[in-house]
Structures are given as structure tokens and as C-alpha cells.
Amino acid sequence: MKMTSIEENEMYMVRQAQSLRKTDPSSAKAWILTAKTLYPNAFNVQYEAYLLERDGKNSEKAANYFSIIATNFTNQHAELWQEVNALTSALRNETENTPEQEFYVKMYKHLTPEVQHSIFVHTISNCGDNLQQCIHSYILMFNKFPKTAATQAPRLLEMLAEGMKADPDVYQRMLVEEVLPMIQNKPPELNPVLACRLYTNSLEYYLRQIMDDEKCDTTEAWKNIFKVLMLCGQMMGWEPFLPFSKQVNQNVYWDKLVKILRGSPAGSSQVLFYATTLFIYSLHGYIRKLRIEDAEVSHVLVEGFIDWSPEGGEVQSMDWTPEGGEVQSMEPPKFSATTAISQELSEAFLHAARCWQLLNTEQFQRDFSQLMLALPLAPWISRFLFDLAIYFGHRDEANKLMADMTTQSTLVQSLQILSLNLMQGSMTLQGFQCILKILAELPATSGQLLENISLKSHRHMIFLPLTKIALIQYCTRAIISRLSRMLFEPNCSDRLLGDLLALLQLSSDKDVVLKQHIFNLITQRKSFNLHVLSNYIIATDIIEELAFIWNSQQQDDANFELTGSPTGSSGASGATNATAVATTQPRRIGTRGADKGARDEFKSLIRQQIARCNEHVPTLVANFITQEQLTLVQHIFGMAPPVETIVIK
């Protein structure tokens, strides 16, 4: 289009000013003053006047010209929008601005509030498809004009929800860190579907922090999650839940949830989200406590043992579960206090379990399943469901779930398979092979013997710490539990009785009734040979009882033989001594026809074993299991599979 003579004159003056702006600002201003007098409503003239003041760093006068063009030419001219974008960009980064951006911040302060607000409104209107720019403009407007959030926040939240479809990380961060803090004091009314969606995204954001960032302050993260839950609840008019506090017992949260549940319709979204949050909170506490925070020691939920000896001291059989795939019991199992953290672990597990059961009822199951798919909880859920299955005695289900736990160590997997094996009531060859694998992978952390891994009369669970001594104790108890049943079989072998005595050294002050029963069986026999004394039996209570039996049977017709180390051997436990016994015929010391030489040799053998009483008994017992594994397998299963010998050091 051909310019008119007026437009030609206007542009001539603007070009003259432009040519002099850098070299002779005063002359450039003279041209612009003349142009403003002749053409006061021309955009090019007003814009060039603004540029002269901008380049001269005169923020107040630049603000005057910017107000004129921003008010009168809002829907025209790309040059104006370049300046608007530069201004809003500077406002977004006030703490890290360049000198040029600092000028825009100063100029903004000289604009009237009406012009400031109109800049944001027109910027939002002209963002087009640039969703991120539009959202940033909304956030800026809310920061500068907080009252606008009451009416404009729903639109901003819709945009954020839309942006999360393409880039969830970016828009979740903007939602949680920038937008929600601005509206928390006066939240707008929101569509329930959108509010629930925003809460789910906020929850996902914080859960990723908790799971992926080792430096994350989990207490602060949960405090924020509960704040967002309360905020979204306000948007939807829900009955308020309780704020987060580490000092609040989880029973208090559960009681509040039950109260809300009773007053809500079936399938209520309010109950769904409150219960889901409480479930994840309990689940996180459970998974976190499985690893003690101050030490690199994990815990694994395993089957406890039933103490077969009754209060009266009489020996009875101890079968307590069917041979099928499920443990049938009207009552859920108890948790035994084995370590200082056992109580906290069991409480966190039970809280998560009852939330899980509520959320998997017919009224919530479908929506809860969709929520679980949307949240990054797969590693926690697979471990929890496995533990839940063994807690309820669902062995077949637990076997299927084990395949989902791909990140765990072979040590943990072997321990869990052993526990499943014991759940059926009788350890199988697979369980024994797991024991050998566990003993081959013992951790460096020593630990200590546990209390209460065996209880009377009812099924129970224990949280087993992955320490060397605790693992040896659990494996030993599994073998004792299986072997001691054979005491009730006719003609149980001398070797079985001796092997049990070797294993029972690990619990010297326990199993008194069982040990006494073994000694009774020995004294009732006309002939008895104890093969394992010199290599593996060092417990003084057992040695003293054996010495008493040997001395008393010298007067009887019975023959009580102890197999000692050959002359010159050290008598120490371990692979070296075991090899010596295998290659040299050991000395057999019997009571029948014993002369003074035999009695002296017996006394020497007893002194030799008592001198070893300070050896590390757990290591000794672990070596006994691995070195005598063929004999143990023969006792338990009547077979000798090809298995490797492992030495515990």
C-alpha cells in the first residue's frame, strides 16, 4: 500500500531520529519532539520516543512512553510485544538479571498499577499456543496482583493440567512450587475431577522426590503432601483431614478416616484420596524402616518358629500347619519383638495393610487401582504385597509376587524362599539349599542373637535383620525345627542326636527341654557313638552333661563312645581340622572296658573342648552346617544331593 504524504513525512522524521539515536541523542530527541507535535497519535513516533529514553537508561520517562503505547496500541505492532516479552522475562528473573533486564524492572516500578495489570492481561491474551509463556504470565500476575488469583486461578490450573500431558516434570514443578503456594490461603472453587487430578500430580511430584533424592527431607515432603491434600479438599468442599505431624500416632489418622467414612456415601472421592494418602504414608514408613536409618542393616519379614516344647516340659510332636499351599488360620499372626525397631515396623505394616484392605473393597477398588498405576510406587508395592501375602499365609500368591521384585539381592531372595518353605510346615530340599546359599553370602555386619524367634502355640512373624549372627540363627533354627521332629521316630540315629547337640549350642540358655530329651535318649541306649564332639561341640553345658553320662556309664554294660581328634591334631574348628579328621582315623574313646589310659584320654578330650569355649559359636555352627551338609541332607530327606562345601570365616 502506498503511503500518504503525511505518513511519508512522519517516517522521515522517525528515520532521522533513528540514525542519530546512538551518535547524537540530543539531535534525535529534537526530531522526535517535532514529530510528536505534528503527529501525536502515531505509533512509530511514540515508540521511537520510548526507545530514546530506554537507550538513555531513563526508566521514569521510558515508563511514561511505554504506558502510552501499551494503552493505545495493545493489539498492534510486533515491536511492542518484543518489549513486553523482554519486560515480563526480566520480572520472572529479578534475582539473576543482566543490567539490561534490571532497567526493565526499574521501568516497571514507574508504571501505574492499571498499566501493570493490563500488560499481564494482554500478554496472556496474545500468547497463542505458547502454553508455558501463558502460565508464566499468570504466575507473574498473581505475584504482583494476588487478588486476581480468586478469579483467574481455575484457568491457570486447567492450563497446568493440560501441560502435564506433554511434560509432567516441568508442569508438576510449576504447580507445586509456584502456583499452589499462591492460592493456598484462599483456594478457588474447582471442578472435582480437575482438583483430584491436580492432587494426584502433586503427590507424584513429591513421591518422586522421596524415592529418587537421597537428600530429600521426607518429613517436609509429607508435610507438603498433606497441605496439598487439605487444599484440594477445600476446593471440593470436603471435611478437613488432619494436618501432618510426625508426633501424631497413625491410629489417630485412621480414626479420623473411619469417622469420615461413616458419614460419606459409598465410593466417596474424599475417602478414596484420604485413605490413599494414609496408605502411601504408612507404606513409605514401612519400606523406610525396613532399612535402619543409622546403619546399613535391612530387615526382611519372615516366618517365625513354633516352640515345640510345652510349659510342662514334656516332649510332643510339633506339626502345626497343613502341607498345602495356604496356611489356614482364623486369627492373623502376631509379630515378635526381635529388634528395637520391630514394633515400629509391625505398626507401619499393619497400618498400611488395613488401608490397603479398605481401598480394595468393591466401592474403591477400580479408582484405587487407577491411582496406583499413575503413581511411581511399583518397587514399594511389590515388596509390600509379597509381605502381605506371607502375613496372611497365602504361599502360592507370594510365590507369584516374588517374580515382580527384581531389584532385591540373592541373599534376600534366598531368605524369602526359605521363609515360604517353612510356612508350609516342613522344610523341603529347596529350603535347605536356600540355607546353604544364605550361609555363602553372609554380610559383614555381625549383629547379635535375637530373642523371640520361637514362640509357643501360635503362628507369628519376625522382622529378621540381615546381620551375620541373625541369619545363622534363623538358618540353624530351621534345621533344628526339622531334625527335632525325627526324635519321635523309632531308632533315630546316634548321628542325628549328635548333630542336634552341635546345632543347639547357638542357643545355650534355650531349648533346655529339647536338650534334656536328647540326653535321655542317649542314656537309654546300650550303645552310643558321638562323632562330632572334637570338631564342633564346645558349649560347656553340653560337654558337662556328656562327661556325666560317660562317667556314669562306666559302671553299666552300655558303651558310650566319643570320637576325638587324632593324636597331634589341633582340635580347632574349621576346614583344616575337618580335613584332618577325614584323612586320619580318629581316636574312639569308649566306656566299655575303659582303663586308666582311656579315662585320661577322655579327660584330655574334655579339657580340649572346654578350652575352646570362647570360640565364635555362630561361625562354628555355620561351618558345621556347610561341612556336614551331606549328613544333614541324609537325615532330613534320606538322600545326598551333589552340593558344594562352603567354609564360613
UniProtKB/TrEMBL annotation:
Gene name of the record: LOC111601579
Keyword Nucleus in record: yes
What name has this protein been given in UniProt? Answer: Integrator complex subunit 10
Bias (Low complexity): 563-581
Per UniProt, the keywords (alphabetical) are: Nucleus
For region Disordered, the annotated ranges are 560-581
> Can you list the GO cellular component terms from the UniProt entry?
integrator complex
Q: Which Pfam families match?
A: INT10
